[in-house]
């Protein structure tokens, strides 16, 4: 009997939204442990949209703050930043970020948020959402963003840590929370690029978008606190490789066009 095999997924790497949530709880655990996810409510998510245009990647960064009494506006904006056709990318989103968003939207009576629903309902083998905990293996056991980034020389957790978010938020220091979640999202994106290049066996899936991201960060004064990501070891490697990869792609494209022209000429001469 012929054994059925799952076909490899075709991930839409050319259109992704990488996101992360910073959350708070109204009541901490008495033993100091991390509270169960249903107790969390989002206060500062960030979304990095990366799209491939004809010759390079373009980026858009959105960071939200959830003020008290404005939850409906907040969740509808979150929903709009996860449009159909993109692939959501997170680190442990299947087990935390997505269930938290779904539960809190339900709490506020918002049942028509189909983009959040698509992310929350996505399984492990679904191109709507890619959880890097699955990609890097081990089911996430004993793994964190900081550990993965350290192994790949990616800056992470440089301004604060997740355990500080609750105190910072209650103190009214939303700027620190915002900067922190933005760092996490950029670090997660670079992890994603490593995973994409490895899975496809093509270094261009890391080198080209990372080189473009470095240039983009340098052109955005409001994101100056993220400049270490433009000069980390993977980013410098990407910048060194990108010109040659672009030249190879341009040559291959020219050869395809030339062959097409020859074929048309040969066909018309018959």
The average pLDDT score comes to 90
Q: Which secondary-structure class do the elements indicate?
A: alpha/beta
| Largest sheet features | 5 strands, mixed
CATH class membership of the domain at 15-202: Alpha Beta
Walk me through the structure.
- The chain is of the alpha/beta class.
- The protein has a domain at 15-202: Ribonuclease H-like superfamily/Ribonuclease H (Nucleotidyltransferase, domain 5, 2-Layer Sandwich).
- Helix content is 47%, strand content 14%.
- It has 9 helices and 5 strands.
- It has helices at 71-80, 93-107, 114-121, 132-135, 145-151, 165-170, 174-200, 204-218, 233-268, and strands spanning 15-25, 40-52, 57-63, 87-90, 129-131.
- Strands 3-2-1-4-5 form a 5-stranded mixed beta sheet, sandwiched between helices.
- β2 and β3 form a beta hairpin.
- The termini are far apart.
What's the gist of this structure?
The protein has 270 residues and is α/β, with parallel strands linked by helices.
List the helices and strands and how they pair.
Blueprint (H helix, E strand, L loop, with lengths): L14 E11 L14 E13 L4 E7 L7 H10 L6 E4 L2 H15 L6 H8 L7 E3 H4 L9 H7 L13 H6 L3 H27 L3 H15 L14 H36 L2
Helix pairs in contact: 2-3, 7-8, 8-9
């Amino acid at each position: 009997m012929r054994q059925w095999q799952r076909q490899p997924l075709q991930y839409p790497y050319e259109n992704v939204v990488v996101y992360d949530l910073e959350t708070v709880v109204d009541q901490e655990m008495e033993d100091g442990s991390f509270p169960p996810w249903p107790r969390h409510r989002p206060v500062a998510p960030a979304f990095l949209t990366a799209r491939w245009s004809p010759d390079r990647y373009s980026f858009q960064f959105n960071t939200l703050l959830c003020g008290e009494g404005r939850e409906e506006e907040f969740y509808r904006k979150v929903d709009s930043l996860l449009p159909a056709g993109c692939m959501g990318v997170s680190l442990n989103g299947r087990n935390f970020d997505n269930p938290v968003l779904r539960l809190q939207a339900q709490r506020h009576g918002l049942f028509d948020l189909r983009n959040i629903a698509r992310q929350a309902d996505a399984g492990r083998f679904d191109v709507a959402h890619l959880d890097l905990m699955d990609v890097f293996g081990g089911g996430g056991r004993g793994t964190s963003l900081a550990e993965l980034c350290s192994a790949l020389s990616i800056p992470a957790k440089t301004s604060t840590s997740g355990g500080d978010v609750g105190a910072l938020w209650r103190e009214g220091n939303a700027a620190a929370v915002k900067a922190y979640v933005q760092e996490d999202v950029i670090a997660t994106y670079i992890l994603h690029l490593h995973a994409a290049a490895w899975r496809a066996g093509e270094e261009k899936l890391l080198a080209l978008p990372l080189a473009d991201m470095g240039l983009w960060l340098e052109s955005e004064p409001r994101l100056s606190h993220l400049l270490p990501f433009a000069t980390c070891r993977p980013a410098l490697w990407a910048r060194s490789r990108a010109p040659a990869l672009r030249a190879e792609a341009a040559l291959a494209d020219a050869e395809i066009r030339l062959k097409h022209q020859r074929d048309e000429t040969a066909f018309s001469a018959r």
